[in-house]
Known about the structure:
The protein has 232 residues and is α/β, with parallel strands linked by helices. The chain is built from eight helices and eight strands; from the N terminus they run E-E-H-H-E-H-E-H-E-H-H-E-H-E-H-E. Helices cover 30% and strands 22% of the residues. The longest helix is centred in the middle third of the chain and has 12 residues, at 142-153. The N and C termini lie far apart (36 Å).
Amino acid sequence: MKLKIGGIQKISMVDYPGHTCAAVFTIGCNFRCGYCHNPELVLPERYIDEIPTGDVLEFLKSRIGLLDGVAISGGEPTLHEDLPEFIGRCKEMGFLVKLDSNGSKPEVLESLIEKSLVDFFAMDIKGPLDKYAGIMGWDIDVDKIRRSVELIRDSGVRHEFRTTIVASQLDVEDFEEVGKLVDGAERYALQHFLPGDNLNDPEFAKEKTWSEEDFTRAKEIMDRYVKKCVIH
């Protein structure tokens, strides 16, 4: 087994709601969102060195009884064929597993759900489906996004959908369509875009997020569709 791992945060209090965890970051992504803060995991010309999978598993073994779980993010973890085996090894050690995904590989999510390998899903929703290409960088089969939403929402597994808000990309009214897409979901997070120096597209350092008033209006919309909506 060789999962392409580019980083590990040895302890996190925020990556897995309600639990302490280690956060593992895989290399490689099939999206090119300009606001992404992990270009070293997304852009091939900026890839960082891999951490041997065995070293990561040995570290996790040393944390049995000290951490509750493992949060796997990226990049996009579902691109890697060894992901299920890696998760299985984590589960064998007694860890809860949270998986972050962009939802582009519903067949992988379906298999993980069928095998009861994931305890918490977090899926990014870039915006209404008709804006996906403009936000994530190129055309995508949005039926796959819709299918991933359905699988996660109906899985019986704890989950959260979330959107990073760049003011130039999204309007408050877009969340009527987003709400219909995720209708019935357990939890939704509206996330402030945070500009920085280390983004996929340096031009996004000039971008801004919404006003607090706009966040509140979008939350009011999402509250009609999901069990709980939060603003981060």
